[in-house]
Design brief:
This protein is of the alpha+beta class. Helix content is 44%, strand content 25%. A hairpin with a 2-residue loop joins β5 (161-167) and β6 (170-175).
Protein backbone atom coordinates (compact mmCIF):
# COMPACT_ATOMS: atom_id res chain seq x y z
CA UNK A 1 0.00 0.00 0.00
CA UNK A 2 1.39 3.43 -0.84
CA UNK A 3 2.33 5.73 2.01
CA UNK A 4 -0.60 7.99 1.25
CA UNK A 5 -3.00 5.03 1.30
CA UNK A 6 -1.65 4.00 4.70
CA UNK A 7 -2.20 7.51 6.00
CA UNK A 8 -5.77 7.59 4.73
CA UNK A 9 -6.44 4.21 6.33
CA UNK A 10 -5.07 5.31 9.70
CA UNK A 11 -7.13 8.52 9.66
CA UNK A 12 -10.27 6.51 8.91
CA UNK A 13 -9.61 4.05 11.74
CA UNK A 14 -9.12 6.88 14.22
CA UNK A 15 -12.30 8.61 13.13
CA UNK A 16 -10.60 11.71 11.73
CA UNK A 17 -12.24 11.10 8.37
CA UNK A 18 -15.72 11.26 9.91
CA UNK A 19 -15.33 14.95 10.68
CA UNK A 20 -14.99 15.62 6.96
CA UNK A 21 -17.54 13.09 5.77
CA UNK A 22 -19.78 15.74 4.23
CA UNK A 23 -16.93 17.09 2.10
CA UNK A 24 -15.82 13.56 1.19
CA UNK A 25 -19.32 12.58 0.11
CA UNK A 26 -19.62 15.72 -2.01
CA UNK A 27 -16.31 14.93 -3.71
CA UNK A 28 -17.34 11.36 -4.48
CA UNK A 29 -20.75 12.42 -5.79
CA UNK A 30 -19.04 14.99 -8.03
CA UNK A 31 -16.86 12.21 -9.41
CA UNK A 32 -19.93 10.09 -10.19
CA UNK A 33 -21.73 12.93 -11.93
CA UNK A 34 -18.69 13.87 -14.00
CA UNK A 35 -18.00 10.29 -15.07
CA UNK A 36 -21.66 9.75 -15.98
CA UNK A 37 -21.89 12.93 -18.04
CA UNK A 38 -18.73 12.09 -19.99
CA UNK A 39 -19.28 8.37 -20.58
CA UNK A 40 -22.99 7.86 -19.96
CA UNK A 41 -24.98 7.03 -16.82
CA UNK A 42 -24.92 3.26 -17.49
CA UNK A 43 -21.92 1.71 -15.70
CA UNK A 44 -21.68 -0.97 -18.38
CA UNK A 45 -19.13 0.31 -20.84
CA UNK A 46 -18.07 3.19 -18.57
CA UNK A 47 -15.19 1.95 -16.34
CA UNK A 48 -14.58 5.44 -14.97
CA UNK A 49 -18.14 5.50 -13.65
CA UNK A 50 -17.75 2.00 -12.19
CA UNK A 51 -14.68 3.20 -10.29
CA UNK A 52 -16.44 6.33 -9.04
CA UNK A 53 -19.45 4.35 -7.80
CA UNK A 54 -17.28 1.74 -6.07
CA UNK A 55 -15.26 4.42 -4.28
CA UNK A 56 -18.51 5.96 -3.06
CA UNK A 57 -19.79 2.60 -1.83
CA UNK A 58 -16.52 1.83 -0.04
CA UNK A 59 -16.81 5.20 1.72
CA UNK A 60 -20.38 4.36 2.81
CA UNK A 61 -22.09 6.97 0.65
CA UNK A 62 -25.83 6.14 0.88
CA UNK A 63 -27.27 4.29 -2.09
CA UNK A 64 -29.94 6.98 -2.56
CA UNK A 65 -27.26 9.66 -2.94
CA UNK A 66 -25.52 7.63 -5.63
CA UNK A 67 -28.74 6.99 -7.53
CA UNK A 68 -29.70 10.69 -7.40
CA UNK A 69 -26.29 11.63 -8.78
CA UNK A 70 -26.74 9.24 -11.70
CA UNK A 71 -30.22 10.61 -12.43
CA UNK A 72 -28.94 14.17 -12.36
CA UNK A 73 -26.13 13.33 -14.75
CA UNK A 74 -28.47 11.48 -17.11
CA UNK A 75 -31.19 14.12 -17.17
CA UNK A 76 -29.44 17.46 -16.72
CA UNK A 77 -27.46 18.13 -19.87
CA UNK A 78 -27.40 21.86 -19.09
CA UNK A 79 -26.12 21.47 -15.54
CA UNK A 80 -22.65 22.13 -14.18
CA UNK A 81 -19.90 20.77 -16.41
CA UNK A 82 -16.72 19.65 -14.67
CA UNK A 83 -13.29 19.68 -16.28
CA UNK A 84 -10.49 17.34 -15.27
CA UNK A 85 -7.15 19.05 -14.58
CA UNK A 86 -4.08 18.02 -12.64
CA UNK A 87 -1.17 19.74 -10.89
CA UNK A 88 2.25 18.46 -9.90
CA UNK A 89 4.58 19.59 -7.16
CA UNK A 90 6.74 18.82 -4.18
CA UNK A 91 6.15 18.58 -0.44
CA UNK A 92 8.84 19.09 2.23
CA UNK A 93 11.51 16.41 2.12
CA UNK A 94 11.36 16.15 -1.67
CA UNK A 95 8.09 14.17 -1.70
CA UNK A 96 6.39 14.20 -5.11
CA UNK A 97 2.68 15.11 -5.26
CA UNK A 98 0.24 14.54 -8.10
CA UNK A 99 -3.07 16.38 -7.60
CA UNK A 100 -6.22 15.58 -9.60
CA UNK A 101 -9.09 18.08 -9.76
CA UNK A 102 -12.61 18.17 -11.12
CA UNK A 103 -13.66 21.78 -11.50
CA UNK A 104 -16.05 24.15 -13.20
CA UNK A 105 -13.54 26.98 -12.74
CA UNK A 106 -9.90 26.35 -13.66
CA UNK A 107 -8.72 29.66 -12.21
CA UNK A 108 -10.26 28.90 -8.82
CA UNK A 109 -8.79 25.40 -8.76
CA UNK A 110 -5.32 26.66 -9.73
CA UNK A 111 -5.40 29.43 -7.12
CA UNK A 112 -6.55 27.09 -4.34
CA UNK A 113 -3.94 24.46 -5.15
CA UNK A 114 -1.17 27.06 -5.46
CA UNK A 115 -2.18 28.60 -2.14
CA UNK A 116 -2.14 25.21 -0.39
CA UNK A 117 1.39 24.54 -1.68
CA UNK A 118 2.69 28.00 -0.79
CA UNK A 119 1.20 28.09 2.72
CA UNK A 120 2.43 24.62 3.69
CA UNK A 121 6.05 24.55 2.61
CA UNK A 122 5.53 22.96 -0.79
CA UNK A 123 6.18 24.10 -4.33
CA UNK A 124 4.28 23.71 -7.58
CA UNK A 125 6.22 22.19 -10.47
CA UNK A 126 5.88 22.25 -14.23
CA UNK A 127 3.60 19.65 -15.90
CA UNK A 128 5.47 16.37 -16.25
CA UNK A 129 7.91 17.09 -13.43
CA UNK A 130 6.65 14.25 -11.22
CA UNK A 131 3.87 12.61 -13.24
CA UNK A 132 6.28 10.05 -14.69
CA UNK A 133 6.85 8.70 -11.17
CA UNK A 134 3.25 7.49 -10.91
CA UNK A 135 1.46 4.71 -12.80
CA UNK A 136 -2.30 4.29 -12.93
CA UNK A 137 -3.11 0.91 -11.40
CA UNK A 138 -5.91 -1.07 -9.83
CA UNK A 139 -5.61 -1.81 -6.10
CA UNK A 140 -7.71 -4.20 -4.02
CA UNK A 141 -7.20 -4.33 -0.23
CA UNK A 142 -7.87 -7.69 1.44
CA UNK A 143 -7.82 -8.19 5.25
CA UNK A 144 -5.02 -10.65 5.94
CA UNK A 145 -6.53 -12.03 9.13
CA UNK A 146 -9.33 -13.73 7.22
CA UNK A 147 -7.46 -15.31 4.32
CA UNK A 148 -4.02 -16.28 2.98
CA UNK A 149 -1.90 -15.11 0.07
CA UNK A 150 -2.39 -18.48 -1.63
CA UNK A 151 -6.18 -18.10 -1.37
CA UNK A 152 -6.00 -14.62 -2.89
CA UNK A 153 -3.84 -15.77 -5.79
CA UNK A 154 -5.92 -18.87 -6.42
CA UNK A 155 -9.14 -16.85 -6.53
CA UNK A 156 -7.97 -13.89 -8.57
CA UNK A 157 -4.96 -14.79 -10.70
CA UNK A 158 -6.96 -15.62 -13.82
CA UNK A 159 -9.04 -12.45 -13.37
CA UNK A 160 -5.94 -10.28 -13.69
CA UNK A 161 -3.90 -10.06 -10.47
CA UNK A 162 -0.47 -8.57 -11.16
CA UNK A 163 0.98 -8.83 -7.64
CA UNK A 164 0.07 -9.51 -4.01
CA UNK A 165 2.05 -7.97 -1.13
CA UNK A 166 1.49 -8.41 2.61
CA UNK A 167 1.58 -5.01 4.32
CA UNK A 168 0.69 -4.95 7.99
CA UNK A 169 -2.73 -6.47 8.52
CA UNK A 170 -3.73 -6.44 4.83
CA UNK A 171 -2.81 -7.83 1.45
CA UNK A 172 -2.40 -5.22 -1.26
CA UNK A 173 -3.48 -6.72 -4.59
CA UNK A 174 -2.42 -4.78 -7.70
CA UNK A 175 -3.92 -5.13 -11.16
CA UNK A 176 -4.12 -3.33 -14.47
CA UNK A 177 -6.67 -0.48 -14.19
CA UNK A 178 -9.29 -2.25 -16.31
CA UNK A 179 -8.99 -5.50 -14.33
CA UNK A 180 -9.53 -4.22 -10.81
CA UNK A 181 -13.27 -4.91 -10.58
CA UNK A 182 -13.03 -8.28 -12.31
CA UNK A 183 -10.45 -9.23 -9.68
CA UNK A 184 -12.66 -7.91 -6.88
CA UNK A 185 -15.62 -9.90 -8.20
CA UNK A 186 -13.52 -13.07 -8.49
CA UNK A 187 -12.24 -12.69 -4.92
CA UNK A 188 -15.70 -12.09 -3.47
CA UNK A 189 -17.17 -15.00 -5.43
CA UNK A 190 -14.50 -17.25 -3.90
CA UNK A 191 -15.35 -16.01 -0.40
CA UNK A 192 -12.24 -13.84 -0.01
CA UNK A 193 -13.18 -10.67 1.93
CA UNK A 194 -12.45 -7.33 0.26
CA UNK A 195 -12.03 -4.11 2.23
CA UNK A 196 -11.83 -1.75 -0.74
CA UNK A 197 -10.93 -1.48 -4.42
CA UNK A 198 -10.08 1.45 -6.65
CA UNK A 199 -8.13 2.71 -9.61
CA UNK A 200 -5.32 4.85 -8.22
CA UNK A 201 -1.84 6.18 -8.98
CA UNK A 202 1.05 4.19 -7.51
CA UNK A 203 4.57 5.62 -7.26
CA UNK A 204 7.51 3.79 -8.82
CA UNK A 205 9.95 5.40 -6.38
CA UNK A 206 9.31 6.31 -2.75
CA UNK A 207 10.90 8.99 -0.57
CA UNK A 208 11.73 7.79 2.95
CA UNK A 209 10.75 10.19 5.73
CA UNK A 210 12.35 9.49 9.11
CA UNK A 211 11.87 12.77 11.01
CA UNK A 212 8.55 13.45 12.74
CA UNK A 213 8.73 17.16 11.90
CA UNK A 214 9.09 16.41 8.20
CA UNK A 215 6.31 13.82 8.34
CA UNK A 216 3.99 16.38 9.93
CA UNK A 217 4.88 18.97 7.29
CA UNK A 218 4.23 16.54 4.43
CA UNK A 219 0.89 15.38 5.80
CA UNK A 220 -0.15 18.96 6.59
CA UNK A 221 0.29 19.85 2.92
CA UNK A 222 -1.51 16.71 1.74
CA UNK A 223 -4.49 17.50 3.96
CA UNK A 224 -4.53 21.15 2.88
CA UNK A 225 -4.74 20.02 -0.74
CA UNK A 226 -7.48 17.50 0.06
CA UNK A 227 -9.46 20.31 1.69
CA UNK A 228 -9.58 22.27 -1.57
CA UNK A 229 -13.11 22.06 -2.96
CA UNK A 230 -12.03 21.13 -6.50
CA UNK A 231 -9.46 18.48 -5.53
CA UNK A 232 -10.56 14.89 -6.10
CA UNK A 233 -7.37 12.95 -5.35
CA UNK A 234 -3.90 13.62 -4.01
CA UNK A 235 -1.21 11.04 -4.74
CA UNK A 236 2.13 11.13 -2.92
CA UNK A 237 5.27 9.00 -2.92
CA UNK A 238 6.24 9.35 0.74
CA UNK A 239 7.30 6.33 2.77
CA UNK A 240 6.68 7.17 6.42
CA UNK A 241 7.13 4.40 9.04
CA UNK A 242 3.87 3.24 10.60
CA UNK A 243 5.03 4.42 14.06
CA UNK A 244 5.37 7.97 12.74
CA UNK A 245 2.02 7.83 10.94
CA UNK A 246 0.36 6.66 14.13
CA UNK A 247 2.11 9.36 16.17
CA UNK A 248 1.05 12.11 13.78
CA UNK A 249 -2.52 10.79 13.67
Amino acid sequence: MSGHSKWSSIKHKKGAADAKRGKLFARLIRGIESAAKVGGANPEGNPTLVDAIQKARDASVPKDNIERALKRAAGDADGVSYESVHYEGYAPGGVALYVECLTDNRNRAANDVRSAFNKNGGSLAAPGAVGYLFTRSGVVIVPAAQTSEDDVLLAGLEAGISDVVREGDSFTVTTEPNDVYAVRAALEEAGVPVASSEVTMLPSVSVAIAEESTAKAVLRLVEALEDCDDVQNVYANFDIPDRLLEAVA
